[in-house]
C-alpha cells in the first residue's frame, strides 16, 4: 500500500500532494508509477504558471504610465510645451513624398519648405528634431493619438479639421489646381465628366470634389507617389491637388504636363496643427510666427525650397504668409 506524500508549505507542491493523496485513498495497494507522477507534476506546474502569468500581466497593465514621448503616445495624451522641453525632443509629422514641401532626397535626407520650418522650430525650442513620415489621411490620427507633437505636412485649415485638432496661425496660402497631360489639357472642371479624376485620400481636393462635384469619378490613393504614378501611367485624365503641387509637377516633367486649372475652389491657408487642447504648444507656435515674420523667414524658405521648383510660375507673395497674417 502506498504511503501518502508528506504535506509541504509550497503551494505548487500542495497541489501535487492533493492529487497524489486522492489517488492513494481511492486505490489502496496501488503504487502510482513515476511516469504518472511526473505528468501530474507537469500539469500542476503549468496550471500554476498560467495563473501566475495572468496575475503579473494584470499588475503591469494597471501600473501607472511613465514619462517621455513614448509613454505619452501610449496614453494618447499630447505633451505640453514644458514636457517637450524637458524631454529634449519634439516629434513633427511631415510628408516624405511631397516635393517641394516635404520629401526624402537621394541621400535619405528630409528636404522641403515644411522641413525648413520644422528645423527652425526645434532650434528655437532648444530640442532635437524627430521627423515622422505621415500620409494625408493619417494627419489627424497622428495628432489625436499623440504619435507626434505637431503636424507640418501642408495641412490646409478647414472647419472639419479644426473640430478635431488645433491649428496655429497660418504660414502659407493655397487653392486647388488640376494638372493633366499637355496633349489632353484640362482647363475646365466640366471636362472631367465621364473621366477619372485622381486625388489623394484625406486631402482638401478629395473633400471639395466629393461635395461640390459629386458627378465626377474619383480615383483615390493613399500616397502622393501613387497619385503621380497614376497620372504618369494615364490612369486618370487629371490630378486635382493644391495648385502649388500641380505647378511643381508640371515644371518637373519637361512640358509633358500642364496645370490647366490654376485656381479651383476657395483660397485656403496652411498651418501647423497640434492635438486639441494643447494650448501651450499652439500659443508658442503663434508667437514663433510673429518672431519669424520680423526676419521674413518664409520668404527665405521660399527662395531655398520652392523657387527652384516653380521658377517664374509662382511668386513668394502668392504663397507665403509672414507673421501668421494671411
TrEMBL record:
Coiled coil spans: none
UniProtKB keywords: Membrane, Signal, Transmembrane, Transmembrane helix
InterPro entries linked to this entry: Solute-binding_3/MltF_N
Source organism (scientific name): Luteococcus japonicus
Gene3D superfamilies: Periplasmic binding protein-like II
Lineage of producing organism: Bacteria, Bacillati, Actinomycetota, Actinomycetes, Propionibacteriales
Name the UniProt record assigns to this protein: Polar amino acid transport system substrate-binding protein
SMART domains associated with the record: PBPb (SM00062)
Record keyword ATP-binding present: no
Membrane-spanning segments: 30-50
Occurrences of domain Solute-binding protein family 3/N-terminal (ranges): 89-309
Amino acid at each position: 500500500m502506498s504511503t501518502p506524500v508528506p504535506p509541504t508549505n509550497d503551494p505548487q507542491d500542495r497541489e501535487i500532494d492533493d492529487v497524489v493523496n486522492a489517488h492513494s485513498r481511492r486505490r489502496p495497494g496501488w503504487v502510482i508509477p513515476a511516469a504518472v507522477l511526473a505528468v501530474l507534476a507537469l500539469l500542476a506546474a503549468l496550471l500554476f504558471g498560467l495563473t501566475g502569468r495572468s496575475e503579473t500581466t494584470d499588475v503591469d497593465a494597471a501600473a501607472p504610465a511613465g514619462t517621455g514621448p513614448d509613454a505619452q503616445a501610449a496614453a494618447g495624451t499630447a505633451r505640453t510645451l514644458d514636457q517637450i522641453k524637458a524631454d529634449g525632443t519634439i516629434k513633427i509629422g511631415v510628408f516624405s513624398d511631397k516635393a517641394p514641401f516635404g520629401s526624402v532626397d537621394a541621400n535619405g535626407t528630409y528636404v522641403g519648405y515644411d522641413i525648413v520650418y520644422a528645423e527652425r522650430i526645434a532650434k528655437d525650442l532648444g530640442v532635437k528634431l524627430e521627423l515622422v513620415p505621415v500620409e494625408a489621411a493619417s494627419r489627424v490620427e497622428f495628432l489625436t493619438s499623440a504619435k507626434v507633437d505637431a503636424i507640418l505636412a501642408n495641412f490646409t485649415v478647414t472647419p472639419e479639421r479644426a473640430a478635431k485638432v488645433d491649428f496655429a496661425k497660418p504660414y502659407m496660402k493655397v487653392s486647388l489646381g488640376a494638372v493633366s497631360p499637355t496633349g489632353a489639357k484640362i482647363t475646365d472642371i466640366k471636362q472631367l465628366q465621364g473621366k477619372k479624376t485622381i486625388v489623394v485620400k484625406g486631402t482638401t481636393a478629395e473633400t471639395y470634389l466629393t461635395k461640390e462635384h459629386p458627378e465626377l469619378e474619383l480615383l483615390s490613393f493613399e500616397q502622393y507617389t501613387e497619385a503621380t504614378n497614376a497620372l504618369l501611367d494615364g490612369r486618370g485624365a487629371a490630378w486635382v491637388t493644391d495648385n502649388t503641387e500641380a505647378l511643381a509637377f508640371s515644371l518637373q516633367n519637361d512640358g509633358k504636363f500642364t496645370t490647366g486649372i490654376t485656381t479651383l475652389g476657395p483660397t485656403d491657408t496652411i498651418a501647423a496643427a497640434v492635438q486639441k487642447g494643447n494650448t501651450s504648444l499652439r500659443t508658442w507656435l503663434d508667437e514663433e510666427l510673429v518672431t519669424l515674420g520680423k526676419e521674413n523667414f518664409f520668404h527665405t524658405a521660399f527662395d531655398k525650397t520652392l523657387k527652384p521648383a516653380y521658377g517664374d510660375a509662382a511668386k513668394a507673395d502668392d504663397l507665403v504668409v509672414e507673421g501668421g497674417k494671411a
